[in-house]
Amino acid sequence: MVAMLPCAVSWPSSSGAPLRHLGGMVWQPSLRTLRPQGNWAQLGVRRLLVQWTVVDSQAFVPGTGLPPIAAELPDWERIAAEPWAQEVIVGLAAMHGEAQARASVALLVEQAHALVPIVQRLPLKLGGWYFPLEVDPTWLPGPEWSQGLAQLPRPLWISAYDSANLGPHALADWIERWLPADVGVFFQDGVGVHARSPEVALKYLQVLTYRLGQARVQMIAEAFRPAPEGGFRSATAAEFLPQIDAYKGWEVLAFDGPHYLGEPLVAELVAQGVR
Fold first, then answer.
1. How high is the mean pLDDT of the chain?
2. Distance CA 213, CA 273 (A)
């Protein structure tokens, strides 16, 4: 008999959850977004995933002993008071270059381990930790990966994507071979880079949830699209709404708020019933 895949995370009957809802977002700290500000709470955003607090050995938080990314670092006290940051999952140490990061797991774990007590002193409502080394089936993590993750606090998350389009079952097989059972997965939907449709991304979400458990899987919905001149632009409301609708009822984080969810897009999404 074929097992039934979950349809969605059930909303509590008393929640009054709207039909269209965006509960969380990612913030990828950069020189452009050192002071994130926006009306994201109007979309229902209450949860924030900070992609990293150190990148390429430059720090976005004080007290690390590493060079600061800028003379003025983010105002973490102000961020902690924002309605869109009432629960914060903090990313630790990362590198911009994917190949370099995968070859530097031991260094990133060392930096991440040192970051934990520093981040714990920030006035954030900590909901977990994120090890920001993105994985996909073109790479098989070695023993240093699982050994490194064992040193980091829980709840702990990593992120995964399917660049090879293996399909949801094959991706789940691959993840189960090396991911510790107490580590969660943010799955990048791939819609923003035109790797798949929201409907296909939903199949991944259903299969991963069935295989790993509901508490270990969340979706990252890409709120960007390729720009004609290169790079990426914000998705339009018409482009992004199918993702919100497809993942209705699941834990979703939009990537990313400060870069791609600007005021005009937020206003248009609110006008379309996103709350």
1. 94
2. 30
Residue 14 banded pLDDT, cuts 50, 70, 90: very low
Residue with tokens 């976005």: 60
Q: With 0-12 CB in 10 A as exposed, 13-18 as middle and 19+ as buried, what is 3? A: exposed
Which of the 8 DSSP states describes residue 95? -
For residues 182 and 34, what is the distance between their CA atoms, to the nearest angstrom?
A: 32
Residue 35 has pLDDT above 60, yes or no: yes
CB 171 within 8 A of CB 208: yes
Question: Rounded CA gap, 187 and 191, in Å?
Answer: 11
CA triple 37-43-48, angle to 5 deg: 55
Domain ranges of the chain: 24-271
- pLDDT at position 8 over 90: no
- What does DSSP assign to residue 256? T
* Rounded Cα gap, residues 181 and 229, in angstroms: 42
Phi-psi region of 18 (alpha: psi -120 to 50; beta: other; left: phi over 0): beta
Architecture of the domain defined by 24-271:
Alpha-Beta Barrel (3.20)
Q: Mean per-residue pLDDT for 232-244? A: 99
Query: Using alpha carbons only, how large is the chain's radius of gyration in Å?
Result: 18
**DSSP code of residue 32:** G
The stretch 248-263 carries a mean pLDDT of 97
DSSP state at residue 84: G
What is the H or E stretch that residue 224 is in?
A: strand 224-226
Q: Distance between CA 16 and CA 1 in Å, rounded?
A: 36
pTM: 0.94
